[in-house]
Design goal:
The structure holds two protein chains of two kinds. Chain A is mainly alpha-helical. Chain A is built from eight helices and no strands. In chain A, helix 2 runs antiparallel to helix 5, helix 5 packs antiparallel against helix 8 and helix 6 packs antiparallel against helix 7. The longest helix of chain A is centred in the middle third of the chain and has 25 residues. About 9% of the residues of chain A have low confidence. By secondary structure, chain B is mainly alpha-helical. Chain B has a five-stranded mixed sheet, sandwiched between helices. In chain B, helix 1 packs antiparallel against helix 4. Classes of the chains: A mainly alpha, B mainly alpha.
Chain lengths: 190, 451
């Protein structure tokens, strides 16, 4: 009976522990799940196609867009509002892709500054991949392959801490910078 | 004292008694079954290596570079399946083949293990052939074998655990349960009965729990070395998504139970309420007939728990998710088969098996992809997005994002779907092509090409 009770207690204790601990350790704005610009894509494109009111969605992502406009030299909010008003779905998608390009730039910069912390760097690069996946269909075939390869090289460049040091691979800042540059070059026309 | 013979018409070569009382002498019957099993497995090996789902593709990525954050494979990582595939990859040096054959080899064990379990549970050696043949004949079995997924090997581990328990091999049971959880963690409901019964063996609990703990620890270290703490964050995100977004479970959509009813109809014929009803009343049925070998009602309860978990926690669009339900159902109902019914059951199963045989062909997904590459400028799909992006040169839009999908369709993209596509669903007039599945449990695909 004691072992059975112990198992139940273990399950009850570790359950909440496992679910809560991830959040405490993950990088602040790379928190599991929520990406405002990805979550808003559907609503914005729907508004552009059907003429629905997108002001609520736009105000939700205003902070993100403002940050990108200030730090990554893109014009987003005004053209987006205009495209949605003009029911131009293609232009809305193109502008969102431009925003995602800026997000990729932002996350990769964050990753390169955190190459010493594997967890953080990994989460940031994986976040960029989520944005890249949405941009891919709008790229040409050659560009698509080049972008995917560049991101794979970025992932590789982060290295790996191994298990208690066994099988560890250090982060390669030079390779990271090269791959990042290659990726941004492919995305430049957006 | 003469006891009633345990097999009807015992062969004169049954021996002078001893421990086995001639139970193991079947006049070469097991050898024929083994031969059939080898031929069946060989037939499946002749099918081309072709992954037909994103999940299988994720596994093949995991063979080369394991990371749950990178979706290679997706959460929870299925460490034991990756180990198995990597082992095979050492020989074949082709991740896609390694994954497909890992799945095949694991699934090939299901029929013999289920048959041995039925024999042991009901103490009726003559059940070996009917159960073995019936499980081989289920359209689910070749589907699982060629899917490149861990369902087949996990089901084998599960049946192995139940069988080891019957043979009182407690440490082996523990190992099988550990492997079951490491092969497909969402099968934790299947682990409940072996866990419960294993812990009942008071003197041997440590021997039972140690292998489970060891496998668990090794799995944890394996996923940790790739992703660390972020693994648990990704787990939370993925589990949320499974239950509320893409997992299609009844927890999110009430009418998914209807979807399940449709799936049961398609997979188990519209007669499925009959055997299910029989299983539910099994404890009472056994009591009424006062069978010499009756199963504890715990088994029926267990089967019911499996059914409820499948209905409410699994995606009804994938028939493979219901596999544990008919497998355990066959094993439990086998004992009700009257002695005179065994031979007709064998013949019926053989006929059913013959009807599932098809010449080796590529799966519907691969055929559809080949046509799409030739005739489409772009593709919109909810199935196999990553697979199509990596194996074709097409720009593939994820159909989950309806705004993007609508945009791509107005620009002339083709549409791939598991459901027939009405003319009204696409902005441009289109022609629909149907790609038939190879087996009953595989999904077929519709490809709509704008004219």
């Amino acid at each position: 009976m004691t072992i059975r009770h112990g198992l139940i207690a273990l399950a009850l204790l570790t359950g909440p522990l496992l679910t809560l601990s991830g959040q405490a350790q993950a990088y602040s704005y790379a928190a599991a799940g929520k990406e405002p610009l990805i979550d808003a894509r559907e609503a914005l494109l729907g508004a552009a196609t059907d003429g629905k009111d997108a002001s609520a969605t736009l105000s939700e992502i205003a902070d993100e867009l403002t940050y990108l406009e200030e730090h990554h030299k893109v014009e987003l909010q005004a053209p987006l509002a205009a495209a949605i008003k003009g029911k131009d779905a293609a232009a809305t998608a193109a502008l969102l892709n431009r925003a995602y390009k800026a997000e990729i730039e932002r996350r990769l910069e964050g990753a390169s500054q955190n190459l010493g912390d594997y967890q953080t760097a990994k989460v940031l690069v994986v976040k960029s991949k989520r944005f890249l996946d949405l941009i891919l269909p709008s790229l040409g075939e050659g560009d698509r392959k080049a972008a995917e390869q560049a991101l794979a090289k970025v992932l590789d460049a982060i290295g790996n801490p191994g298990v208690f040091g066994v099988g560890a691979k250090p982060a390669d800042a030079a390779a990271f910078a090269d791959a990042e540059k290659a990726l941004m070059a492919v995305l430049a026309p957006l | 004292m003469m006891t009633a013979p345990l097999i009807s018409g015992p062969s004169p070569a049954r021996g002078e008694g001893g421990r086995h009382h001639g139970r193991l002498r079947f006049a070469n019957r097991p050898y024929l079954l083994i031969l059939l099993q080898l031929v069946w497995t060989g037939w499946l090996f002749t099918f081309p290596v072709a992954l037909d789902s994103d999940d299988a593709l994720n596994f093949s990525h995991g063979v080369v570079r394991f990371s749950v954050l990178e979706f290679s494979p997706h959460f929870p990582g299925y460490p034991a399946f990756i180990w198995l595939a990597r082992l095979i990859n050492l020989v074949v040096d082709d991740p896609a083949a390694a994954v497909q054959w890992a799945s095949l080899l694991g699934t090939a064990l299901i029929a013999p293990l289920a048959a041995l379990l039925a024999v042991r549970l009901w103490q009726r050696p003559s059940l070996l052939a009917p159960v073995w043949l019936l499980v081989l004949a289920l359209p689910l079995t070749p589907t699982l074998a060629l899917s490149g997924l861990s369902d087949g090997p996990a089901l084998s581990a599960w049946l192995g655990a139940l069988l080891a328990l019957q043979h009182r091999r407690i440490a082996l049971t523990g190992l099988m349960v550990g492997l079951l959880l490491a092969l497909r963690p969402s099968y934790f409901v299947l682990a409940l009965l072996p866990l419960w019964l294993g812990i009942e063996h008071k003197g041997e609990r440590r021997k039972f729990l140690l292998p489970i703990a060891l496998v668990g620890l090794i799995s944890l270290i394996f996923v940790w070395q790739a992703d660390g703490w972020a693994y648990f964050g990704e787990g939370r995100r993925f589990t949320d998504g499974h239950f509320t977004l893409w997992g299609n479970t009844a927890a999110a959509h009430g009418d998914r139970l209807l979807s399940w009813a449709r799936t049961f109809n398609a997979q188990l014929t519209p007669l499925w309420p009959l055997p299910m009803g029989a299983l539910l009343v099994l404890p009472i049925w056994q009591g009424v007939q006062r069978q010499s070998q009756a199963l504890s009602p715990l088994w029926t309860l267990y089967w019911l728990a499996l059914l409820l978990w499948t209905l409410f926690g699994q995606n009804p669009d994938n028939p493979r998710h219901l596999a544990p339900v008919p497998l355990l159902g066959i094993v439990l109902l086998a004992g009700r088969l009257p002695l005179w019914g065994e031979r007709p059951a064998m013949l019926g199963a053989l006929l059913l098996l013959m009807s599932t045989l098809t010449p080796p062909a590529a799966p519907a997904m691969v055929q559809a992809a080949r046509l799409a590459e030739r005739t489409c400028p772009a593709l919109v799909t909810q199935w196999g997005v990553r697979l199509l992006r990596e194996t074709t040169t097409l720009p593939v839009t994820d159909g989950w994002y309806q705004g993007d999908a609508a945009l791509a369709l107005t620009q002339g993209a083709c549409r791939l779907s598991r459901r027939p596509i009405a003319q009204s669903e696409m902005p441009l007039p289109h022609q629909a092509h149907w790609f038939a599945p190879r087996f009953g449990a595989e999904p077929g695909l519709w490809l709509a090409i704008p004219r």
